[in-house]
Amino acid sequence: MLRSLFRQQPRRIAILALAGVTTSALAARGAESFDPMTQVGPNPVLPEPQQYLFPPMHLARVVGWKEGEVPTVAPGLKIEPLAQNLEHPRSIHVLPNGDILVIESKSPNVQPVRRPKDIVMGWVESWVTSGGNAGDSNRITLLRDEKGSGKPETRTVFLDHLASPFGVALVGSDLYVANTDAIVRYPYTQGDTKITSAGTTLTPLPGGPIDHHWTKSLVASRDGSLLYVGVGSNSNITENGMEAEKNRAAIWEVDRATGRWRIFASGLRNPNGLTFEPESGALWTVVNERDELGPDLVPDYMTSVKDGAFYGWPYSYFGQHLDPRVQPQRPDLVEKAVVPDYALSSHVAPLGLAFYTADSLPQKYRGGAFVGEHGSWDRQEFNGYKVVFVPFSGGHPNGTAEDVVTGFLNANGEARGRPVGVAVDKTGALLIADDVGNTVWRVTSSGQ
Amino acid sequence: MARNGFLFTARVGRRPFYPLLVAFAVSCFLGGLATDIAYWRTADVVWADFSDWLVTAGVAIGYLSIVVALIEVIVLRTGRLRRPSWPYAITMVVALILATFNMLVHTRDAWTAVVPWGVTLSAAVVIVALGGGCITRETYEPATEKVTA
């Protein structure tokens, strides 16, 4: 019954909702005139929360890239595929010798059906993340482009048979891969194109049986003694019970020598793109905020991460805005909830973050941050589906985010690709992992 | 005789089948009310999950009962109506519409799937459905009587 209703076109769902509860549906209609750009920056406009019989949904059917099609780039830039026919590439790590690791990964798919909605949502999610059946995913592909021409002369399977990997960090000759359920260490020698070692588990991470937000972002501290890993929540908003959220919605700090860990910061619903801001040296992350409070709540954000800080999830958002769906509430935690630094707009789904410290792209990009926005599903008007640039100065965002790479959606609102992780290669070009487009894109200066 | 054989499955016990389905649906709604109250008092999501299944199953069986009732009464004439019981039919349809809204409210995540509107609708559905049960009379007679009459 529900399933067949969800099969309708999104606009028909909106009409059904209109026939249902007029109040909330009218609010949804009115909200279509809301300008998402008012939620970009340090002080986002936050409308009142709405709850629905049918939350507004609009899914981008995956059609993939046709031969010769490429995304659109801002003036002064050009874009070409660095590698195609990958299997659901989610993130990118550039090694010291310039070799590019493309982490191809798919969901562990271990979320049990706890209630009828899970059947519907499982189907909805398969719809928006399909494309690239990801048969041979869960591996890392190495690309070597010695000439820096954008045409890699070597492409090998670097590591295979991983468990939904996402983050990679290298310290000396130790290469760490953050699988969904553990950080695993491999011996790496510069120039290796393949690792055959079985690897050693450094620290288990919260994985199944639910593993709702499964991507584990990873970065090493500057001195190499610590690892920081993002562990997303096990639900949208605690609907799987608080016990399932133990040690989740947090960034862990892991001692590299012993594997011992502690919670570095918490209340971060789904933190990804962990990286250090070059000027201040502070740890930054992009965070996916909660769904089903309306098309314009809650804005996703990027923020510096303070040791011991609590950022609100699940009890509140953007400081002390209470979420009505969480009981029992925790006023003691809400009171100290930190307001994130910079909102990126609602449901844009940021999954990648890279600061630009190279110099081959136009001057204005230097020192700022590129953010890969995977794109929305639970609002009528699409939001995200692009890579944006946030200017920084003095270690803080300074200015409005601007579009750098767009065109992941075609004119019919179908997804040719969806950007995820971003990185900068040894020539200073911006690399973008496009999971449903099964491509890694390379953005260079058009003047070159 | 061949016709009787064809209709056999719809004439189990020579009584219409749909009242049994209605009883199943109402039982689910009653159970859903109990688990809603349990969630409201404990905030333990396991009760909300039970409610979700019970309310959804009740709605599915409820619509099935309408389909079966229409087939039995109009097409097969198993339960030939002595006289239409419109108050009963309308009350039950109202209960089912309320239950459909309740099912959608229950798809929300965590607390607001149940409190305040989920548990309120669950109670309303049970009250309306039991009210419908109170005003119903035996509105059918076994089909065989029709044949012999």
What order do the helices and strands come in, and which of them pair?
The complex is a heterodimer of chains A (448) and B (149).
Chain A: H1 2-6, H2 10-20, H3 22-31, E1 40-41, E2 72-73, E3 77-83, E4 89-94, E5 100-104, H4 116-128, E6 139-144, E7 154-159, E8 167-171, E9 174-178, E10 182-187, E11 200-204, E12 218-220, E13 226-231, E14 250-255, E15 261-266, E16 271-276, E17 283-287, E18 299-304, E19 316-317, E20 321-322, H5 331-335, E21 342-346, E22 350-355, E23 369-373, E24 386-390, E25 392-393, E26 396-397, E27 402-406, E28 419-424, E29 430-434, E30 439-445
Antiparallel strand pairs in A: 1-21, 2-27, 3-30, 4-5, 5-6, 6-7, 8-9, 9-10, 10-11, 12-13, 13-14, 14-15, 16-17, 17-18, 18-21, 19-20, 22-23, 23-24, 24-27, 25-26, 28-29, 29-30
Chain B: H1 2-6, H2 18-42, H3 45-75, E1 80-81, H4 86-106, H5 117-135, E2 140-141, H6 143-148
Antiparallel strand pairs in B: 1-2
Helix pairs in contact in B: 2-3, 2-5, 3-4, 4-5
Textual characterization of the structure:
The complex is a heterodimer of chains A (448) and B (149). With 448 residues, chain A is mainly beta. Chain A has a single domain (60-445), classed as TolB, C-terminal domain (Neuraminidase, 6 Propeller), CATH 2.120.10. Helix content of chain A is 10%, strand content 32%. In chain A, the strands form eight sheets. Chain A has a five-stranded antiparallel beta sheet, with no helix packed on it. In chain A, strands 2-27-24-23-22 form a five-stranded antiparallel beta sheet, with no helix packed on it. In chain A, strands 3-30-29-28 form a four-stranded antiparallel beta sheet, with no helix packed on it. The N and C termini of chain A lie far apart (57 Å). By secondary structure, chain B is an all-alpha fold. Chain B has one domain (15-138). Helices cover 72% and strands 3% of the residues of chain B. Chain B has six helices and two strands, in the order H-H-H-E-H-H-E-H. Chain B has helices at 2-6, 18-42, 45-75, 86-106, 117-135, 143-148, and strands spanning 80-81, 140-141. Chain B has a two-stranded antiparallel ribbon. In chain B, helix 2 (18-42) runs antiparallel to helix 5 (117-135). The longest helix of chain B is centred in the middle third of the chain and has 31 residues, at 45-75. The two termini of chain B are 18 Å apart. Classes of the chains: A mainly beta (448), B mainly alpha (149). The interface between A and B is medium-sized, with 25 and 24 residues.
